[in-house]
Amino acid sequence: MTTEAIDLTEAKRELTEAIERNRKGIRDPEVIRRMRERMDRRREAIFKKFGLLNIAVELVREARDE
Question: What is the distance, to the nearest Å, from the Cα of residue 52 to the centroid of all Cα atoms in its chain?
Fold first, then answer.
């Protein structure tokens, strides 16, 4: 299985740009499509490697107990 390496500098730049577009109310369908595709590939790679992760369920349960 090959996974896409994540360049943190590039990811930070893209996130900053996305935040700025969102603040300005700009929705670029092509950028949104590319981001969805990348997220889907990463999610699938994580699923193949680790299986189903129910992390949020446990975090919610812990928060309720506090």
Answer: 16
The answer to whether 55 and 8 have CB atoms below 8 angstroms apart is no
As a whole number of angstroms, the distance between CA 13 and CA 8 comes to 8
Rounded-to-integer distance, Cα 20 and Cα 14, Å: 10
pLDDT digits (tens, 9 = 90+) for 10-33: 888 988 998 999 999 998 898 889
Model pTM?
0.57
How many angstroms separate the CA atoms of 34 and 3, rounded?
17
